[in-house]
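Researcher: Structure prediction, please.
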Amino acid sequence: MEEPNNSQLNIELSEEIAEGIYSNLAIITHSNSEFVVDFIKMMPGVPKAKVKSRVILTPQHAKRLMKALKDNISKFEQIHGAIKDTDMPNGFPLNFGGPAAQA
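Model: Predicted structure follows.
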């Protein structure tokens, strides 16, 4: 008789979350104990953008996420070719009043 694999993680994905949220801008801020990633939807001609989702990560998890994104982007580009890096629109503020980076 086989023993169950206790290292397997069962992840539940609700229908609402599975739909996802569109974001074309991410603002990243951090403190000594956490990274905060705000996912934002900016629309052309609309002066106000809304934060659609906020994810708070430990520094260790943020680094693991960065490595996972790098690996997945590399795999994507091997299949589909290089992703063209576009510049942000002129006049877009890069700092909203705190230590921030944008992705």
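Model: The longest helix spans residues 59-80.
Researcher: Thanks, that helps.
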